[in-house]
């Protein structure tokens, strides 16, 4: 039997929007929500074919799945994405701000345009998407905003200054917005994974990956499925007392 929250909406009647959901953690999150029959909106930037493949997996699980494209660095495009969803009668009850890019290199070599791009995609998009989609949540006095951070936002990562700074900004944003929205029944949390087996790890060779695994107490990288389970838990109605938290799934790497 589907659980209901205080307002009476069943979990299976809710809509979740996942940004950057054509691959990696975002794709796994989409499939996790689809497994309970939710309306799943898969945002993508340029990877239409990959997004359609994620949608196909969601449809096979019995969920309603939709794909939508937008450049999340642009407020106008986010507003148009919201309008397209409204035309389908979709108002996200759950927003997963997952879209992100990385940059690896010495700060002395970092170009200003590269810094701006990391900040726009990783941090500005969280601000713009939250701002556009939280009014509906406030109006119904229920909602979930879950931001994808990183362990580097907690510890800092050598040669990843821009990425670390963007994720640290997400953590502060999460804590502040959680206090702002708590009276409205909307929770705001962040998930800060450690090393996860996704294409972001492709820059490491086998020897580097083995060395990395040796540093992690559980002795391995996380799977995207493990991260998606935490995201799903935070989105549940019964998780309503958890807000303003930065939860790091990192295998004991950072405590």
From TrEMBL:
Q: What SUPFAM superfamilies does its record include?
A: NAD(P)-binding Rossmann-fold domains
Q: Which residues form the Ketoreductase domain?
A: 14-199
The record lists the membrane-crossing segments as none
Provide the alphabetized UniProt keywords.
Elongation factor, Protein biosynthesis
- Where on the tree of life does the source sit, at the highest rank? Bacteria
A single GO molecular-function term is: translation elongation factor activity
Cited InterPro entries: KR_dom, NAD(P)-bd_dom_sf, Sc_DH/Rdtase_CS, SDR, SDR_fam
- Magnesium in keyword set: no
NCBIfam families from the entry? EF_P_mod_YmfI, PRK12826.1-2
Task: Please give the family membership noted in the entry.
Answer: Belongs to the short-chain dehydrogenases/reductases (SDR) family.
User: What PANTHER family does the entry give?
Assistant: 3-OXOACYL-(ACYL-CARRIER-PROTEIN) REDUCTASE, 3-OXOACYL-[ACYL-CARRIER-PROTEIN] REDUCTASE FABG
Protein name per its UniProtKB record: Elongation factor P 5-aminopentanone reductase
Origin organism is Paenibacillus puldeungensis
Q: What is the lineage of its organism?
A: Bacteria, Bacillati, Bacillota, Bacilli, Bacillales
Gene transcribed to yield this protein: ymfI
């Amino acid at each position: 039997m589907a659980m209901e929250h205080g307002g009476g909406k069943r979990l299976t009647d809710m809509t979740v929007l996942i940004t950057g959901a054509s691959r990696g953690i975002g794709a796994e999150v989409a499939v996790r929500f689809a497994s309970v029959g939710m309306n799943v909106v898969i945002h993508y930037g340029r990877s239409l074919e990959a997004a359609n493949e994620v949608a196909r997996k969601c449809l096979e699980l019995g969920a309603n799945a939709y794909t939508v494209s937008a450049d999340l660095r642009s407020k106008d495009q986010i507003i148009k994405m919201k309008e397209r969803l409204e035309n389908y009668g979709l108002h996200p009850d759950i927003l997963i701000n997952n879209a992100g890019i990385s940059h690896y290199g010495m700060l002395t070599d970092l170009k200003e345009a590269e810094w701006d791009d990391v900040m726009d995609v990783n941090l500005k998009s969280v601000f713009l998407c939250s701002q556009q989609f939280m009014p509906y949540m406030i109006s119904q006095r229920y909602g979930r905003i879950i931001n994808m951070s990183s362990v580097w936002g907690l510890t800092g990562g050598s040669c990843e200054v821009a990425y670390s700074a963007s994720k640290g900004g997400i953590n502060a944003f999460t804590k502040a917005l959680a206090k702002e929205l708590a009276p409205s029944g909307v929770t705001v949390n962040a998930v800060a994974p450690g090393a996860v087996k996704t294409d972001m790890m492709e820059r490491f060779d086998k020897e580097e990956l083995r060395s990395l695994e040796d540093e992690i107490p559980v002795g391995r990288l996380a799977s995207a499925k493990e991260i998606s389970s935490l995201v799903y838990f935070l989105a549940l109605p019964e998780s309503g007392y958890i807000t303003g938290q930065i939860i790091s799934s990192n295998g004991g790497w950072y405590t």
